[in-house]
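Example record used in the benchmark description.
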Amino acid sequence: MKFYYATLAIGAIALAGCHHEEVTPQPAVHITAQLALAPGAVVVNPTGYAPLAAQLSFAYPVAGRTRLVVHGKHGADSDVVQQFDDSGTTHSVPILGLYADFDNKVDVQLTDAQGLALADTTLTIHTGALPPAMPTAITVTTAPTVPLGGNFTLVSNFSASNPQVPLIVDNYGDIRWLLDYSSHPVLNQLSYDCGIARLQNGNFYFGDKNTSGLYEVSPLGNIVNQWSLPGYTFHHEMYEKPDGNFLVSVSKVGSTHPDGSPTNEDYIVEIDRHANRVVQEWDLKQSLNETRHALEPDPTDWAHVNALFYDASDNTIVVSARYQAVVKLTYDNHVKWLLAPHRGWGLNHQGQDLSQLLLTPLDASGQAITDTAVVNGSANHPDFEWNWYQHSTVPMPNGDLLLFDNGTNRNFIHNAPSTTAGPCSTTSTLFGALCSKYGRMARSGARIPIQLLYRGYSFCRLPITSCSAPATRYPTAMAWAARLLRSITPPTKYCLRCR
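Model output (structure tokens):
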């Protein structure tokens, strides 16, 4: 097909004498051609793993780029707009953001280098129902008051049975994307533990406890890359550094204490994703005190690493060891600071006195708290409480640290009340808006910008807000909010309808 420009020519009118009136040419009228698609150009769920996605393939005689708009149910704020850098005459692009069991309207445009439409059409794409055991609805009961940093949130759904099914919800609570690997030859028992995240290149990545492999997958669910861990087994966390390498929490095969008894979940490794090899190893038995059992008596799972991230400001890593502390480590595995109650620390195998590296709690006015009971963790201060069995440490743009305080064994009281995802009759939040307690910390008089913020999920589980349903736990509600959130979000409540 061709496109045409219609130009209106206006002649000059001679007036008296030699005077001529200058006439401004009128702008061209741009006519967009109808884009004709061949039968079979649209395939819903082309891989079998992404039921809320489709693949669009077409050709056009004039080179251009594809632009898609999936119309949302709630106006432009719920639209999914995709602009592809696929300049050429043949095109094959994914359509993402479809609703389940719905006739989705999708605008397709082919644009030139200036962004003008060469040809367009509108599609109607019907999708099937959600897979079994998925939430039937997620209802927003408190609308956002400030931008969330995006209209969509990735949720690492921690299903009652494998494979775990990650999903994306929009700000209206509608599920707009998911991956269901039930029929996948490798990932049919996927257990990503603490979740899936987005790579810098736009794909997704996770570790699988079942295969102990690391995976990069496309939005349609195809495996793009995978990495093995010879000599190690994966658990909990996989993190992409700015340079593209991965930090991974692992257990090392054959790891033991000095007395020969086994250990697990106490190593971190850095993987060169291009060479597929380990380039750095951190053994927490060397940097922490492996004989400290102030929180957990189990000598095997004495540390229990469950989260980590890289701090580019000083080339360190920050590690959440559930039964010990949040700890900042250098690349030679030395401790820079520890965020934990001060009870029970001593020397590590490197000769560091860990008690001298513990952060000091401050009250609301910024003054150091000196009450020994508070400092050691056996009592709380009106302005401060320690983190207990924490999960999901996330760096904030302002330098603060966002984490979830599970509260287990708070103040060293066994079976102390903890922050949990309760039955449907309780109320909680999905995102990090339960800032019920704040604590600013410092050591040796140097202020370290850390705030303890309480996230509304427990052990990577998505809490259920008040539902009009029987007070029974919804099995697929065990999930955790996306690690992609880069800023504190307002109190946004969701309801998972139980069945």
